[in-house]
């Protein structure tokens, strides 16, 4: 417990930045008109691609006995991949709505 408190006190500024980024993201996304949804989905897909690469790097640098890092990295790769694929499917379906019907 004391190690956790020391880590929190050592990284207090980073924790504040993450909390502020969460609130800012909620405010920005909440005010986006529906017309811009498709470009934002493409941007979110790119961000999740970076998450996948970061998870692969974490798994590659983790010790073979560090099961927590390996499990979390594996989960990040799986969930990030699902999010990217799902985002592309949703974006493709939305773009199909704007095409002229034959």
From TrEMBL:
Stretches assigned to the NAD(P) transhydrogenase alpha subunit C-terminal domain: 15-100
GO molecular function, one term: proton-translocating NAD(P)+ transhydrogenase activity
Any single GO BP term: NADPH regeneration
Membrane topology (UniProt): Multi-pass membrane protein
Catalysed reactions, semicolon-separated: NAD(+) + NADPH + H(+)(in) = NADH + NADP(+) + H(+)(out)
Enzyme class: translocase
Pfam families documented for this protein: PNTB_4TM (PF12769)
Keyword NAD: yes
Alphabetized UniProt keyword annotations: Cell inner membrane, Cell membrane, Membrane, NAD, NADP, Translocase, Transmembrane, Transmembrane helix
Entry's transmembrane regions: 14-32, 44-62, 68-91
Cell location: Cell inner membrane
Residues in the signal sequence: none
Cellular component terms (Gene Ontology): plasma membrane
E.C. designation(s): 7.1.1.1
Main location: membrane
Function: The transhydrogenation between NADH and NADP is coupled to respiration and ATP hydrolysis and functions as a proton pump across the membrane.
Matching PANTHER family: NAD(P) TRANSHYDROGENASE, PROTON-TRANSLOCATING NAD(P)(+) TRANSHYDROGENASE
Name of this chain's protein: proton-translocating NAD(P)(+) transhydrogenase
Lineage: Bacteria, Pseudomonadati, Bacteroidota, Chitinophagia, Chitinophagales
